[in-house]
Specification:
Blueprint (H helix, E strand, L loop, with lengths): L7 H20 L11 H8 L7 E5 L5 H16 L3 E5 L14 H9 L17 H21 L9 H13 L5 H4 L6 H4 L4 H5 L5 H16 L4 H29 L21 H8 L6 H13 L4 H14 L8 H5 L7 H11 L13 H8 L4 H6 L32 H17 L3 H11 L28
Parallel strand pairs: 1-2
Helix pairs in contact: 1-5, 10-11, 11-16
This protein binds flavin-adenine dinucleotide.
The site of flavin-adenine dinucleotide has 29 residues, from helix 9, helix 11, helix 14 and helix 16.
Length: 471
């Protein structure tokens, strides 16, 4: 909890999910304890009361810390002659020998039946001392969230996740495809399922199967609306594939959390400009769109894919900051923080994979198309409410700029982008072919995705880049 990529957003979501889980477990007479210990310490405490013969756990692909915890627990089990079985969590394959086989394994796992917990287990009696610790922990967090609860965050439990899923499949997915990239409308029309998937309130398998079922139902309806709806759902399904595809990368190379995937990029962007970073994170960059994204994240814990990509590209490419300096801080602002998506995506947007195209955007150009009325900026930046629409993306050019409580831009995007483009493309072209081949073999997708048909040939005019070229 004290790590820089962790925040109250995650604590609130996980704590409230656990309380809900505790309630549903009670119906099955299964006790769920909240114990604020390090895992090894917890097993040691438990062994004061029981002979532990076997531990059943799930396979987790978290951050570096959880990876180290896994290693510690495995070593504890070995030392204490305890058997341990870790079960796959749907998608990621442990010790994947060959990426060529990954998609097949994923599809097999995703098409398996979903189990419903109906069985009432014979449970053991939990020692009073442990029950007391659990109660105290719960009370302590309930008290904490009386003061610090953020009511704008998405809400937590499984039944809520089911509602979000049902509502999305029945209604919101109809316009998903058309709104996914719009900063304002995406708040409503995106699935908004990411935190439920991240914290396993909903399994990816159940989301995928429910979506497939909806697509089948729509096949029987002969109308343009149903056809468009199906197309939107297909778009969504592609994203569910990406979820696992990305997490597999971190599973296969946990060092990706700290190190450039392609080490040729180690020589560039080494200096951290703390003042610049602070201005961005206090929404005082003087670039309204970037400031609005930070406000949206601070207030709601969410923004859409395009805003995430744009924010990272702005700080790392336009402003030449090392991605390692901001990735944990950005993670702390995403309620749905999933290390396996986060770090590989960060490296992709910061252009350090060496196998993906360089992504440099001009936020003004990008958002004029996606939000011509600039609703997003007016909503999250009330201090700019009097700025006329023709100046809203560059308020420093407005004649009454001095009257605003808003700073000059921290950077001239156009000229900075030009320098960044030269630097990143030159570094990328110099990447050794053998290094590229190694990375492609280990990490690249082998699948032809439905929406990749629209992929454009990588263009040097990156302002126009199609967001779909993700891999
Ligand atoms: C720099 C960066 C960091 C990111 N960090 C995270 C993260 O920590 N956690 C996270 O869940 N997503 C992350 N994403 C991916 C994506 O932006 C979010 O999943 C999405 O915006 C969540 O909103 P939604 O649930 O409405 O998604 P939808 O667009 O409705 O997508 C449905 C689901 O598909 C998966 N998904 C969607 N887009 C992607 C993608 N590009 N890559 C992998 N999986 C995807 C997610 O599980 C998502 O919930 C990141 C993207 C970028 C560019």
């Amino acid at each position: 909890m004290s790590l820089p990529d962790y925040s109250d957003f995650h604590l609130q979501f996980t704590f409230e999910s656990l309380i809900e889980l505790q309630k549903s477990y009670l119906e099955l007479w299964i006790p769920l304890l909240l114990l604020p210990f390090d895992a090894e310490e917890w097993f040691k405490k438990l062994s004061e009361y029981f002979d532990i013969l076997h531990i059943s756990a799930h396979e987790e692909t978290g951050n570096w810390e959880t990876f180290q915890r896994d290693i510690k627990v495995l070593s504890y089990c070995k030392r204490s002659a305890i058997n341990i079985t870790e079960y796959p969590t749907n998608w990621v394959v442990r010790i994947l020998k060959n990426r060529d086989h990954w998609q097949k394994i994923w599809t097999q796992r995703m098409s398996k039946n979903i189990f419903t917990a109906k069985v009432v287990l014979n449970t053991i009696k939990i020692p009073t001392k442990l029950c007391d610790i659990s109660k105290q922990t719960k009370t302590q967090y309930l008290e904490y969230f009386k003061t610090y609860r953020n009511n704008n965050l998405q809400s937590w439990w499984e039944s809520q996740g089911m509602k979000v899923l049902e509502n999305f499949l029945e209604n919101r997915s109809m316009k998903y495809m058309y709104n996914i990239s719009k900063p304002f409308e995406s708040q409503t029309w995106c699935s908004r399922l990411s935190p439920y998937i991240t914290y396993w309130c909903l399994s990816l398998k159940s989301v995928l199967q429910a979506t497939e079922q909806k697509r089948q139902e729509l096949k029987n309806i002969w109308s343009q609306a149903a056809k468009n709806h199906r197309k939107s759902l297909q778009y969504f399904i592609s994203r569910l594939h990406w979820q696992s595809h990305f997490i597999q990368k971190l599973e296969d190379e946990p060092e990706m959390q700290f190190r450039n995937l392609n080490r040729d990029f180690d020589t560039i962007r080494q200096e951290i400009n703390t003042e610049l970073i602070e201005r961005v994170f206090s929404s005082k960059s003087g670039i309204p769109y970037i400031d609005a994204v930070i406000r949206q994240l601070q207030q709601t814990g969410w923004c859409n894919f395009r805003s995430r990509a744009l924010l990272v590209s702005f700080i790392c490419n336009t402003c030449q900051q090392p991605w390692q300096a901001i990735a944990p801080r950005v993670a702390a602002l995403f309620t749905d923080y999933e290390p396996g998506i986060h770090y590989p995506q960060f490296q992709m947007q910061a252009a350090t994979t060496g196998i993906n195209t360089v992504r440099i955007y001009n936020p003004v150009y990008n958002w004029q198309q996606k939000d011509p009325e600039w609703k997003f900026i007016y909503h999250f930046m009330p201090e700019l409410k009097n700025v006329p629409i023709e100046f809203i993306h560059e308020p420093h050019l407005w004649e009454w700029f001095e009257t605003l409580d808003y700073p000059q831009p921290i950077i001239d995007i156009k000229s900075a982008n030009k320098i960044a483009k030269d630097l990143l493309w030159t570094t990328k072209w110099n990447v050794l072919k053998s290094d590229k081949d190694k990375i492609i073999k280990k990490h690249a997708s082998r699948v032809f995705h439905w929406d990749r048909r629209k992929k454009k040939t990588p263009t040097k005019n990156l302002q126009n880049e199609n967001q779909i070229t993700l891999f």
